[in-house]
Amino acid sequence: MPKRKQRSDAQQNRERILVVAKKAFAKSGANASLDDIAKQAGVGAGTLYRHFPSREDLLKAVYQAAAEKLATAATEFAETLPPIDALRAWMMLFVDYIADKQIIAPALNALVDDPHKLYDASYGQIWEAVRGLVKRAIKSGEIREDLDAIDLLRALVGVASVGASSDWQQSARKLVDILILGSRPVT
């Protein structure tokens, strides 16, 4: 039987729960109070559990929502921005994604049986998104033909991994502009 489309109010409830849950897991880790999450999202506990039957389901959904946001943004940017601007905007959003992942990773690692399956599933979405944007920018002539999309991702993840400094996101945002400039064709 095909899955029914959610009503708009149910979808809005789900999205509010995810936003609140992300903050709660970042603040309190895997043991964040689900009752508090429901209350702060403006829904009852039953609504939360209807959408997310377990704490693990909620945590996975928080992570998956961030990856889906990246994939959706790539399409939206490609439709509304010039190729190089779309790539830059997406890379800036990727910096936010890395920050979100760092925040909820301890909770995921503590609660989810095999978080690597979850990470691998989102990797495909992210890879397709950046690959499409890079191909488009190469085709337009705005970046070099020898650019590999994975190199852009590695550079940004590398900045996030260098240390636990509080200003890594600011450095990563600067790096996006450096990477874009360095990706331009040599004239």
Provide a descriptive summary of the structure in words.
78% of the residues lie in helices and 0% in strands. It is mostly helical. The protein has 2 domains: 1-53, Orthogonal Bundle (Arc Repressor Mutant, subunit A); 62-182, Tetracycline Repressor, domain 2, CATH 1.10.357. The protein is elongated. The protein starts with 7 loop residues before the first helix and ends in a 5-residue tail after the last helix. 26% of the residues are buried.
What topology emerges from the helices and strands here?
Layout: H1 8-28, H2 34-41, H3 45-51, H4 55-80, H5 83-111, H6 115-140, H7 149-162, H8 168-182
Helix pairs in contact: 1-2, 1-4, 1-5, 4-5, 4-6, 5-6, 5-7, 5-8, 7-8
Quick structural gist:
This protein has 187 residues and is an all-alpha fold. Helix content is 78%, strand content 0%.
Based on CA atoms alone, the radius of gyration comes out at 18 Å
- CATH architecture label of the largest domain: Orthogonal Bundle
Q: What is the H/E order?
A: HHHHHHHH
Top CATH class of the largest domain: Mainly Alpha
Number of domains: 2
- The helicity comes to over 70%
CATH topology of the largest domain: Tetracycline Repressor, domain 2
Q: Average pLDDT, to the nearest integer?
A: 86
CATH homologous superfamily heading of the largest domain? Tetracycline Repressor, domain 2
Shape: elongated
The proportion of residues in beta strands is under 5%
Number of strands: 0
Count of helical regions: 8
SS content category: mainly alpha
Largest sheet: none
| Unreliably modeled segments | none
Tell me the span between the first and last alpha carbons: 58 Å
